[in-house]
Specification:
It is a single chain. The protein is of the alpha+beta class. It is 42% helix and 16% strand. The protein is built from 8 helices and 5 strands, in the order H-E-H-E-H-H-E-H-E-H-H-E-H. Strands 1, 2, 3, 4 and 5 form a 5-stranded antiparallel beta sheet that branches. It is globular and about 55 Å long. The termini are far apart.
Length: 192
């Protein structure tokens, strides 16, 4: 069983993201989404900088997001075909809830940029843990929209980067395991 909420350790051991295209209603209500984000902001953060921020994209804003993605994509890919444009629209309309996570480093800080970027990734993971603990499923995507300056500028400034689009909803299909690394291929003991 994936995302087994029997206890915290079991949830961590069974955590599985959902494919955003397979997430449907119900999604979290405003109070649930706020509670999830309050967990996410408890992320480890050297220097207490909060070098990240979250932007909630409302259900009523999905058409505007689809239009933004299409416009930006066509600008960068003037020969884009129908299927590419449909993919941008589909991306914008996945799952009932969407949170855009921005890496917002404090460049004037003595805390290394790398540590600040790691904190943004941890914030995304904390959000996913909170999503699953609330009984929903989440999916963290990047893809072309995360690397478009035009899309980034719609959510933040030139010193920020989109760390991901976190889609939240209820799985409409059974979750499937994905390949995981074997323990011995990614864990070693330091040997002097």
């Amino acid at each position: 069983m994936f995302n087994d909420r029997t206890d915290p350790l079991t949830l961590l051991q069974t955590r599985r993201s959902g494919k955003p295209r397979d997430l449907g209603a119900p999604g979290p209500n405003d109070a649930q989404l706020r509670a999830m984000l309050e967990v996410a902001i408890r992320t480890p953060d050297h220097g207490k900088l909060a070098p990240w921020r979250f932007v909630i994209v409302g259900d009523d804003q999905r058409d505007a997001l689809a239009a933004l993605l299409e416009r930006a994509y066509r600008t960068e890919n003037p020969l884009a075909g129908r299927l590419e444009i449909e993919a941008m629209h589909q991306f914008a309309r996945q799952a009932p809830a969407l949170v855009v996570l921005l890496s917002s480093p404090r460049r004037e800080s003595k805390i290394p940029l790398w540590e600040q970027e790691l904190s943004a990734g941890a914030a995304a993971m904390n959000l996913l843990h909170a999503v699953h603990a609330h009984g929903f499923a989440g999916g963290w995507l990047t893809g072309w929209p995360a690397f478009s300056d035009t899309v980034r500028d719609a959510f933040g400034g030139p010193d920020e980067r989109i760390a991901g689009f976190i889609f939240i909803g209820t799985p409409q299909k059974p979750l499937e395991e994905r390949p995981r690394p074997e323990y011995d291929t990614v864990v070693t003991r330091w040997d002097i």
